[in-house]
Amino acid sequence: MTDRLRSAVYSAEDQWSETMNRGGKVDFHGSVIEVPVQRRFGDLGAIETYLSWVTSLPCVVECFGRVAPVGVRARKGQAKAHYEPVEGVIAIPLDTRWAARESVVLHELAHHIVMSRDGNDGPAHGAAFTVAMCALVECALGPESALLLRTSYAGLGLATVMP
Fold first, then answer.
1. To which CATH superfamily is domain 10-155 assigned?
2. Do the strands 71-74 and 89-92 form a parallel or antiparallel pair, or are they unpaired?
3. pTM value surpassing 0.90
4. What are phi and psi of 78, to 5 degrees?
5. Buried/exposed 67-100: b ≥16 CB within 10 Å, e otherwise
6. What is the tens place of the pLDDT at every residue in 83-97?
7. How many C-beta neighbours within 10 Å does residue 65 have?
8. CB-CB neighbours of 129 under 10 Å
9. Closest Cα partner for 86 from 56, 113, 116?
């Protein structure tokens, strides 16, 4: 199945992630909101600990139920991180700074949640994915961060709520 939404999702998340790299006060259409600086991870153990923390957050459990365990492995190369649905594993290149950060880990966790729940029935970056990503961001980073992501998605015509 062609994933025609992938480039739009990546574009929206790149914009959002750049803001999260800086954190602090952000002028949002004339209002000032405060966003956290996104975490960066130095090793697989830190990512595993973070994933365990996120999946046990009360609001994540409320949104998605008990999340199936997800593994993490180092990925060779610097091209991209990815989710391996058969194994339930997130592959992160650790030899590059862009990948070992919170926005990338949450993106891959959203794939894990959606595919564990729905299988491969829809586009990988469709509405189920973007809605799950927004919920994860709100739970892990707060409503201000989720507002920025939803706005980035909506600006590119991507779903932020289920139809």
1. Metalloproteases ("zincins"), catalytic domain (3.30.2010.10)
2. parallel
3. yes
4. -120, 5
5. beebebeebeeeeebebbeeeebbbbbbeeeebb
6. 999 899 999 998 777
7. 11
8. 25
9. 116
